[in-house]
Inverse folding.
Protein backbone atom coordinates (compact mmCIF):
# COMPACT_ATOMS: atom_id res chain seq x y z
CA UNK A 1 0.00 0.00 0.00
CA UNK A 2 1.30 3.42 -0.92
CA UNK A 3 2.16 5.84 1.85
CA UNK A 4 -0.36 8.66 2.32
CA UNK A 5 1.07 12.10 2.99
CA UNK A 6 -1.51 14.48 4.49
CA UNK A 7 -1.71 17.90 2.89
CA UNK A 8 -0.58 20.69 5.16
CA UNK A 9 -1.78 24.25 5.04
CA UNK A 10 0.50 27.27 4.83
CA UNK A 11 -0.16 27.97 8.52
CA UNK A 12 0.73 24.42 9.57
CA UNK A 13 3.94 24.52 7.53
CA UNK A 14 4.82 27.90 9.05
CA UNK A 15 4.16 26.59 12.56
CA UNK A 16 6.59 23.72 11.97
CA UNK A 17 9.28 26.15 10.84
CA UNK A 18 8.62 28.47 13.77
CA UNK A 19 8.83 25.60 16.24
CA UNK A 20 12.17 24.40 14.91
CA UNK A 21 13.49 27.96 15.02
CA UNK A 22 12.29 28.82 18.52
CA UNK A 23 12.16 25.57 20.53
CA UNK A 24 15.62 26.11 22.03
CA UNK A 25 14.85 29.73 22.88
CA UNK A 26 12.65 29.04 25.90
CA UNK A 27 13.49 27.05 29.04
CA UNK A 28 11.99 23.58 29.25
CA UNK A 29 11.90 20.57 31.52
CA UNK A 30 10.23 17.26 32.16
CA UNK A 31 6.87 18.95 32.83
CA UNK A 32 7.09 21.10 29.69
CA UNK A 33 7.61 18.51 26.97
CA UNK A 34 7.64 20.89 24.03
CA UNK A 35 8.84 18.38 21.47
CA UNK A 36 6.19 15.79 22.35
CA UNK A 37 3.48 18.45 22.42
CA UNK A 38 4.31 19.78 18.99
CA UNK A 39 4.63 16.31 17.46
CA UNK A 40 1.13 15.60 18.78
CA UNK A 41 -0.13 18.81 17.21
CA UNK A 42 1.76 18.12 14.00
CA UNK A 43 0.11 14.70 13.68
CA UNK A 44 -3.35 16.13 14.25
CA UNK A 45 -2.98 19.50 12.55
CA UNK A 46 -5.25 22.49 12.83
CA UNK A 47 -8.76 21.15 13.44
CA UNK A 48 -11.46 21.44 10.79
CA UNK A 49 -15.20 20.97 10.89
CA UNK A 50 -14.62 17.27 10.19
CA UNK A 51 -13.35 16.94 13.76
CA UNK A 52 -16.42 16.54 15.94
CA UNK A 53 -15.07 18.69 18.78
CA UNK A 54 -14.53 21.52 16.28
CA UNK A 55 -17.67 20.95 14.23
CA UNK A 56 -18.66 24.62 14.26
CA UNK A 57 -15.21 26.25 14.49
CA UNK A 58 -12.89 25.67 11.56
CA UNK A 59 -9.46 26.67 12.83
CA UNK A 60 -7.71 25.52 9.69
CA UNK A 61 -9.60 28.14 7.71
CA UNK A 62 -9.21 30.78 10.43
CA UNK A 63 -5.40 30.48 10.51
CA UNK A 64 -4.33 31.68 7.07
CA UNK A 65 -0.78 32.04 8.36
CA UNK A 66 1.13 31.53 11.59
CA UNK A 67 2.25 34.70 13.31
CA UNK A 68 5.74 34.84 14.78
CA UNK A 69 5.98 34.56 18.60
CA UNK A 70 6.08 38.03 20.16
CA UNK A 71 9.34 39.27 21.65
CA UNK A 72 9.68 40.81 25.10
CA UNK A 73 8.57 44.46 24.69
CA UNK A 74 10.72 47.37 25.76
CA UNK A 75 10.05 49.00 29.11
CA UNK A 76 8.53 52.08 27.46
CA UNK A 77 6.32 50.00 25.17
CA UNK A 78 5.07 47.91 28.08
CA UNK A 79 4.37 50.98 30.20
CA UNK A 80 2.39 52.64 27.42
CA UNK A 81 0.34 49.48 26.86
CA UNK A 82 -0.46 49.19 30.56
CA UNK A 83 -1.65 52.80 30.68
CA UNK A 84 -4.23 51.99 28.01
CA UNK A 85 -5.50 48.82 29.72
CA UNK A 86 -9.07 48.96 30.97
CA UNK A 87 -10.03 45.45 32.07
CA UNK A 88 -10.86 45.36 35.82
CA UNK A 89 -8.85 48.60 36.08
CA UNK A 90 -10.85 50.14 38.91
CA UNK A 91 -10.61 47.18 41.26
CA UNK A 92 -8.26 47.02 44.21
CA UNK A 93 -6.16 43.98 43.36
CA UNK A 94 -2.66 42.59 43.21
CA UNK A 95 -1.67 42.58 39.55
CA UNK A 96 0.55 40.38 37.42
CA UNK A 97 1.04 42.07 34.06
CA UNK A 98 1.82 40.25 30.83
CA UNK A 99 2.53 42.31 27.73
CA UNK A 100 2.71 40.39 24.45
CA UNK A 101 2.81 37.18 26.44
CA UNK A 102 5.75 38.12 28.72
CA UNK A 103 5.59 38.83 32.44
CA UNK A 104 6.62 42.46 33.03
CA UNK A 105 8.04 42.61 36.54
CA UNK A 106 8.17 46.40 36.87
CA UNK A 107 4.50 46.67 35.88
CA UNK A 108 3.45 43.94 38.33
CA UNK A 109 2.88 43.87 42.09
CA UNK A 110 5.36 41.11 42.83
CA UNK A 111 6.50 43.02 45.91
CA UNK A 112 3.12 43.06 47.60
CA UNK A 113 1.76 39.55 47.14
CA UNK A 114 -0.72 38.84 50.00
CA UNK A 115 0.24 36.54 52.85
CA UNK A 116 -0.60 32.96 52.05
CA UNK A 117 0.19 33.23 48.33
CA UNK A 118 3.45 32.48 46.56
CA UNK A 119 3.96 33.65 42.98
CA UNK A 120 6.83 32.32 40.88
CA UNK A 121 7.43 33.46 37.28
CA UNK A 122 7.20 30.43 35.03
CA UNK A 123 10.50 31.11 33.29
CA UNK A 124 12.23 31.12 36.67
CA UNK A 125 10.50 27.89 37.70
CA UNK A 126 11.52 26.14 34.49
CA UNK A 127 15.11 27.34 34.78
CA UNK A 128 15.76 26.33 38.39
CA UNK A 129 13.10 23.64 38.77
CA UNK A 130 9.95 23.72 40.88
CA UNK A 131 7.93 20.87 42.38
CA UNK A 132 4.67 22.55 41.36
CA UNK A 133 5.47 21.95 37.70
CA UNK A 134 4.45 18.34 38.23
CA UNK A 135 0.86 19.54 38.66
CA UNK A 136 0.60 21.01 35.18
CA UNK A 137 -2.11 19.50 32.99
CA UNK A 138 -4.28 18.16 35.83
CA UNK A 139 -7.12 17.08 33.51
CA UNK A 140 -6.37 14.31 31.03
CA UNK A 141 -8.80 15.51 28.36
CA UNK A 142 -6.94 18.82 28.04
CA UNK A 143 -3.76 17.03 27.03
CA UNK A 144 -5.67 15.40 24.17
CA UNK A 145 -6.53 18.78 22.68
CA UNK A 146 -4.43 20.30 19.85
CA UNK A 147 -4.94 23.90 21.06
CA UNK A 148 -3.60 23.02 24.51
CA UNK A 149 -0.68 21.11 23.01
CA UNK A 150 0.14 24.05 20.76
CA UNK A 151 0.24 26.22 23.88
CA UNK A 152 2.72 23.80 25.46
CA UNK A 153 4.92 23.72 22.38
CA UNK A 154 5.29 27.51 22.13
CA UNK A 155 4.97 28.34 25.83
CA UNK A 156 6.92 31.53 26.45
CA UNK A 157 5.97 32.73 29.92
CA UNK A 158 3.45 32.52 32.73
CA UNK A 159 3.31 32.06 36.48
CA UNK A 160 2.97 29.48 39.24
CA UNK A 161 0.53 30.65 41.92
CA UNK A 162 0.36 28.65 45.14
CA UNK A 163 -2.18 29.34 47.91
CA UNK A 164 -1.28 27.85 51.29
CA UNK A 165 -3.59 25.44 53.06
CA UNK A 166 -6.16 27.30 55.13
CA UNK A 167 -5.37 30.72 53.63
CA UNK A 168 -8.43 32.90 52.98
CA UNK A 169 -7.12 35.49 50.55
CA UNK A 170 -9.50 38.44 50.29
CA UNK A 171 -7.57 40.61 47.82
CA UNK A 172 -8.09 39.45 44.20
CA UNK A 173 -5.12 38.50 42.09
CA UNK A 174 -5.52 40.17 38.70
CA UNK A 175 -3.75 38.63 35.72
CA UNK A 176 -3.82 41.23 32.98
CA UNK A 177 -2.78 40.15 29.51
CA UNK A 178 -2.18 43.11 27.20
CA UNK A 179 -1.23 43.05 23.55
CA UNK A 180 0.44 45.83 21.62
CA UNK A 181 2.12 46.32 18.26
CA UNK A 182 1.52 47.10 14.61
CA UNK A 183 2.18 43.68 13.06
CA UNK A 184 0.67 40.25 13.64
CA UNK A 185 2.20 38.22 16.47
CA UNK A 186 1.38 35.18 18.58
CA UNK A 187 1.60 34.51 22.31
CA UNK A 188 1.46 31.40 24.47
CA UNK A 189 1.16 31.71 28.25
CA UNK A 190 0.45 29.20 31.01
CA UNK A 191 -0.66 29.89 34.57
CA UNK A 192 -0.83 27.18 37.23
CA UNK A 193 -2.90 27.85 40.34
CA UNK A 194 -2.78 25.42 43.27
CA UNK A 195 -4.92 25.81 46.38
CA UNK A 196 -4.07 23.92 49.54
CA UNK A 197 -6.67 22.24 51.73
CA UNK A 198 -9.32 24.70 52.94
CA UNK A 199 -7.85 27.65 51.01
CA UNK A 200 -9.88 30.32 49.21
CA UNK A 201 -8.77 32.73 46.48
CA UNK A 202 -10.14 34.87 43.65
CA UNK A 203 -8.29 35.27 40.35
CA UNK A 204 -9.32 37.82 37.74
CA UNK A 205 -8.18 37.65 34.12
CA UNK A 206 -8.41 40.40 31.51
CA UNK A 207 -7.28 40.03 27.90
CA UNK A 208 -6.93 43.11 25.70
CA UNK A 209 -5.18 44.02 22.47
CA UNK A 210 -5.12 46.32 19.45
CA UNK A 211 -7.73 46.45 16.70
CA UNK A 212 -6.69 46.06 13.09
CA UNK A 213 -4.05 43.38 13.76
CA UNK A 214 -4.59 39.65 13.29
CA UNK A 215 -2.64 38.60 16.36
CA UNK A 216 -3.00 35.10 17.81
CA UNK A 217 -3.06 34.65 21.62
CA UNK A 218 -3.21 31.13 23.05
CA UNK A 219 -3.43 31.12 26.85
CA UNK A 220 -4.03 28.31 29.30
CA UNK A 221 -4.73 28.10 33.02
CA UNK A 222 -4.37 24.90 35.04
CA UNK A 223 -5.98 24.81 38.48
CA UNK A 224 -5.65 22.20 41.23
CA UNK A 225 -8.13 22.66 44.07
CA UNK A 226 -7.40 20.57 47.18
CA UNK A 227 -10.02 19.18 49.55
CA UNK A 228 -12.43 21.77 50.97
CA UNK A 229 -10.78 24.61 49.03
CA UNK A 230 -12.58 27.21 46.89
CA UNK A 231 -11.35 28.78 43.67
CA UNK A 232 -13.20 31.80 42.28
CA UNK A 233 -12.40 33.07 38.82
CA UNK A 234 -13.66 35.75 36.42
CA UNK A 235 -12.29 36.18 32.91
CA UNK A 236 -12.82 39.00 30.39
CA UNK A 237 -12.03 38.59 26.69
CA UNK A 238 -11.78 42.13 25.30
CA UNK A 239 -9.24 41.22 22.61
CA UNK A 240 -8.86 43.32 19.46
CA UNK A 241 -11.52 42.91 16.79
CA UNK A 242 -9.20 41.04 14.40
CA UNK A 243 -7.59 38.67 16.89
CA UNK A 244 -7.93 34.89 16.77
CA UNK A 245 -7.98 34.07 20.48
CA UNK A 246 -7.69 30.56 21.94
CA UNK A 247 -7.90 29.77 25.64
CA UNK A 248 -8.15 26.75 27.94
CA UNK A 249 -9.14 26.38 31.59
CA UNK A 250 -8.56 22.99 33.23
CA UNK A 251 -9.56 22.35 36.84
CA UNK A 252 -9.11 19.33 39.10
CA UNK A 253 -11.32 19.29 42.20
CA UNK A 254 -10.64 17.43 45.43
CA UNK A 255 -13.22 16.26 47.98
CA UNK A 256 -15.72 18.99 48.91
CA UNK A 257 -13.75 21.46 46.79
CA UNK A 258 -15.50 24.21 44.83
CA UNK A 259 -14.91 26.28 41.72
CA UNK A 260 -16.84 29.30 40.47
CA UNK A 261 -15.85 30.68 37.08
CA UNK A 262 -17.33 33.02 34.49
CA UNK A 263 -16.01 33.96 31.04
CA UNK A 264 -17.27 37.17 29.41
CA UNK A 265 -16.58 37.66 25.69
CA UNK A 266 -16.77 40.87 23.66
CA UNK A 267 -13.51 40.69 21.68
CA UNK A 268 -11.75 38.80 18.85
CA UNK A 269 -13.07 37.98 15.41
CA UNK A 270 -12.79 34.31 16.41
CA UNK A 271 -12.44 32.99 19.94
CA UNK A 272 -12.62 29.55 21.49
CA UNK A 273 -12.67 29.10 25.26
CA UNK A 274 -12.30 25.52 26.46
CA UNK A 275 -13.17 24.44 29.99
CA UNK A 276 -12.24 21.01 31.37
CA UNK A 277 -13.38 19.99 34.85
CA UNK A 278 -12.37 16.81 36.66
CA UNK A 279 -14.39 15.95 39.79
CA UNK A 280 -11.71 13.79 41.38
CA UNK A 281 -12.99 14.04 44.97
CA UNK A 282 -16.37 13.32 46.49
CA UNK A 283 -18.98 16.09 46.95
CA UNK A 284 -17.14 18.65 44.83
CA UNK A 285 -19.11 21.61 43.46
CA UNK A 286 -18.78 23.74 40.35
CA UNK A 287 -20.51 26.79 38.91
CA UNK A 288 -19.39 27.52 35.36
CA UNK A 289 -21.00 30.47 33.57
CA UNK A 290 -20.40 32.40 30.39
CA UNK A 291 -21.71 35.53 28.68
CA UNK A 292 -20.87 36.43 25.09
CA UNK A 293 -21.84 39.60 23.20
CA UNK A 294 -21.16 39.32 19.49
CA UNK A 295 -21.67 41.48 16.42
CA UNK A 296 -20.19 42.02 12.99
CA UNK A 297 -18.74 38.71 11.80
CA UNK A 298 -17.47 37.51 15.15
CA UNK A 299 -17.53 33.84 16.12
CA UNK A 300 -17.26 32.85 19.79
CA UNK A 301 -17.01 29.17 20.72
CA UNK A 302 -17.41 27.89 24.27
CA UNK A 303 -16.53 24.22 24.66
CA UNK A 304 -17.12 22.65 28.07
CA UNK A 305 -16.52 19.21 29.56
CA UNK A 306 -17.28 18.08 33.11
CA UNK A 307 -15.91 14.67 34.05
CA UNK A 308 -17.60 13.42 37.23
CA UNK A 309 -15.38 10.65 38.57
CA UNK A 310 -16.40 10.69 42.26
CA UNK A 311 -19.66 10.51 44.19
CA UNK A 312 -21.91 13.44 45.04
CA UNK A 313 -20.55 16.00 42.61
CA UNK A 314 -22.72 19.02 41.81
CA UNK A 315 -22.23 21.11 38.68
CA UNK A 316 -24.22 24.04 37.37
CA UNK A 317 -23.45 25.55 33.97
CA UNK A 318 -25.20 28.55 32.44
CA UNK A 319 -24.09 30.14 29.18
CA UNK A 320 -25.78 33.21 27.71
CA UNK A 321 -25.03 34.49 24.20
CA UNK A 322 -26.27 37.64 22.46
CA UNK A 323 -25.82 37.65 18.69
CA UNK A 324 -26.12 40.73 16.47
CA UNK A 325 -25.13 41.41 12.87
CA UNK A 326 -23.71 38.36 11.07
CA UNK A 327 -22.07 36.93 14.19
CA UNK A 328 -22.10 33.28 15.23
CA UNK A 329 -22.26 31.83 18.72
CA UNK A 330 -21.18 28.27 19.48
CA UNK A 331 -21.75 26.19 22.59
CA UNK A 332 -20.58 22.60 22.96
CA UNK A 333 -21.02 21.08 26.41
CA UNK A 334 -20.70 17.56 27.75
CA UNK A 335 -21.28 16.13 31.21
CA UNK A 336 -19.69 12.72 31.75
CA UNK A 337 -20.74 10.68 34.78
CA UNK A 338 -18.44 7.76 35.46
CA UNK A 339 -19.80 4.53 36.95
CA UNK A 340 -18.30 5.35 40.34
CA UNK A 341 -19.87 8.83 40.42
CA UNK A 342 -23.21 7.95 41.97
CA UNK A 343 -25.46 10.75 43.26
CA UNK A 344 -24.07 13.22 40.75
CA UNK A 345 -26.23 16.30 40.19
CA UNK A 346 -25.43 18.10 36.93
CA UNK A 347 -27.41 20.78 35.12
CA UNK A 348 -26.25 22.53 31.93
CA UNK A 349 -28.05 25.29 30.03
CA UNK A 350 -27.23 27.39 26.97
CA UNK A 351 -29.50 30.28 25.99
CA UNK A 352 -29.11 32.62 23.02
CA UNK A 353 -30.72 35.92 22.13
CA UNK A 354 -30.54 36.78 18.44
CA UNK A 355 -30.97 40.47 17.58
CA UNK A 356 -30.61 40.26 13.80
CA UNK A 357 -31.82 38.17 10.87
CA UNK A 358 -28.28 37.19 9.86
CA UNK A 359 -26.99 36.01 13.25
CA UNK A 360 -26.84 32.34 14.18
CA UNK A 361 -26.23 30.08 17.17
CA UNK A 362 -24.95 26.51 17.26
CA UNK A 363 -25.77 24.46 20.37
CA UNK A 364 -24.60 20.93 21.10
CA UNK A 365 -25.22 19.85 24.72
CA UNK A 366 -24.51 16.21 25.63
CA UNK A 367 -24.79 13.79 28.54
CA UNK A 368 -22.75 10.61 28.88
CA UNK A 369 -23.89 8.71 31.95
CA UNK A 370 -22.58 5.37 33.23
CA UNK A 371 -24.07 5.56 36.75
CA UNK A 372 -27.69 4.85 37.68
CA UNK A 373 -28.26 7.12 40.69
CA UNK A 374 -27.91 10.58 39.15
CA UNK A 375 -29.90 13.74 38.46
CA UNK A 376 -28.56 15.26 35.25
CA UNK A 377 -30.07 17.38 32.53
CA UNK A 378 -29.29 19.85 29.80
CA UNK A 379 -31.12 22.39 27.70
CA UNK A 380 -30.69 24.92 24.94
CA UNK A 381 -32.86 27.80 23.77
CA UNK A 382 -32.56 30.34 21.00
CA UNK A 383 -34.86 33.20 20.14
CA UNK A 384 -35.51 36.90 19.67
CA UNK A 385 -36.46 39.56 22.20
CA UNK A 386 -39.88 39.10 23.74
CA UNK A 387 -42.14 41.46 21.78
CA UNK A 388 -44.61 41.74 24.64
CA UNK A 389 -41.93 42.82 27.10
CA UNK A 390 -40.50 45.24 24.56
CA UNK A 391 -43.95 46.73 23.96
CA UNK A 392 -44.53 47.00 27.72
CA UNK A 393 -41.35 49.03 28.23
CA UNK A 394 -41.94 51.26 25.23
CA UNK A 395 -45.50 51.97 26.36
CA UNK A 396 -43.98 53.41 29.51
CA UNK A 397 -41.98 55.95 27.61
CA UNK A 398 -38.69 54.19 26.93
CA UNK A 399 -37.17 54.53 23.45
CA UNK A 400 -36.90 51.22 21.60
CA UNK A 401 -33.09 51.10 21.83
CA UNK A 402 -33.16 51.66 25.59
CA UNK A 403 -35.90 49.10 26.06
CA UNK A 404 -33.90 46.52 24.10
CA UNK A 405 -30.80 47.29 26.17
CA UNK A 406 -32.66 46.70 29.43
CA UNK A 407 -33.93 43.33 28.21
CA UNK A 408 -30.46 42.29 27.02
CA UNK A 409 -28.93 43.30 30.36
CA UNK A 410 -31.52 41.24 32.21
CA UNK A 411 -30.85 38.28 29.92
CA UNK A 412 -27.08 38.36 30.49
CA UNK A 413 -27.34 39.24 34.17
CA UNK A 414 -28.15 35.70 35.24
CA UNK A 415 -24.74 34.51 34.03
CA UNK A 416 -22.77 37.40 35.53
CA UNK A 417 -24.45 37.59 38.93
CA UNK A 418 -22.61 34.44 40.04
CA UNK A 419 -19.46 36.58 40.48
CA UNK A 420 -19.30 37.03 44.25
CA UNK A 421 -16.77 39.91 44.23
CA UNK A 422 -18.81 43.10 43.96
CA UNK A 423 -16.18 45.12 42.13
CA UNK A 424 -15.54 42.41 39.55
CA UNK A 425 -19.26 41.90 39.03
CA UNK A 426 -19.82 45.64 38.50
CA UNK A 427 -16.91 45.77 36.05
CA UNK A 428 -18.45 42.99 33.97
CA UNK A 429 -21.84 44.67 34.09
CA UNK A 430 -20.08 47.80 32.84
CA UNK A 431 -18.71 45.78 29.93
CA UNK A 432 -22.25 44.75 29.01
CA UNK A 433 -23.43 48.37 29.21
CA UNK A 434 -20.54 49.59 27.05
CA UNK A 435 -21.28 46.96 24.40
CA UNK A 436 -24.94 47.95 24.34
CA UNK A 437 -24.08 51.67 24.19
CA UNK A 438 -21.80 51.04 21.18
CA UNK A 439 -24.61 49.10 19.53
CA UNK A 440 -26.83 52.19 19.74
Amino acid sequence: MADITPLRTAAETALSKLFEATKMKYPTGVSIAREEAFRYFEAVGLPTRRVEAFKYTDLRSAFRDAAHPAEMPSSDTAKAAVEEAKGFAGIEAVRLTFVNGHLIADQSDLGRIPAGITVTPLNEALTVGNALLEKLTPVRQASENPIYQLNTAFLADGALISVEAGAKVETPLHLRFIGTGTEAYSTATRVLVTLGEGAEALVLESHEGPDGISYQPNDAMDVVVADDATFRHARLNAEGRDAVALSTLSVKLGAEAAVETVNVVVGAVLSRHQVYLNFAGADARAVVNGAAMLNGKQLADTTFLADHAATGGVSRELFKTVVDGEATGVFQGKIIVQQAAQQTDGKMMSACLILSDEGQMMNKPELEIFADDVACGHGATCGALDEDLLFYLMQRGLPKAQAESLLVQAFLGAAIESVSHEGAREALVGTVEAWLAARG
Summary: The chain is about 25% helix and 35% strand.
